[in-house]
Write a structure and sequence with these properties.
Layout lengths: L8 H12 L4 H8 L3 H9 L18 H12 L5 H13 L1
Helix pairs in contact: 2-3
């Protein structure tokens, strides 16, 4: 799943100003045209906002396994189906 929109620097300045004016989160979201969740995340920790990166899904094969697979494919006369079955046995262990 992708990441959502983050607040740009001018929008962050607007949120900071609206926080000082004690505006509600709903009103802030309506004024800068973004979700309440984005505002809430920014207000909870403004310094660290937007710095974390999602790591994504873990790889099924490690890099070493991918290299071994490429080496096995280049040196064999087996079919793709046979190699897939062989690799599947190694991965499922």
């Amino acid at each position: 799943m992708g990441r959502g929109k983050t607040l740009m620097i001018p929008e962050r300045a607007h949120v900071d100003l609206m926080v000082q004016l004690n505006m509600s989160i709903s009103l802030m979201s309506a004024r800068i045209h973004c979700s309440r969740t984005i505002n809430d995340c920014y207000m909870s920790d403004p310094v660290a906002y937007g710095t974390s990166k999602s790591t994504g899904r873990a790889r099924k094969l490690k890099q070493r396994d991918e290299r071994n697979f490429a080496r096995a494919v280049s040196n064999t006369m087996k079919s793709a189906k046979d190699l897939g079955a062989e690799i599947q046995r190694k991965v499922s262990k």
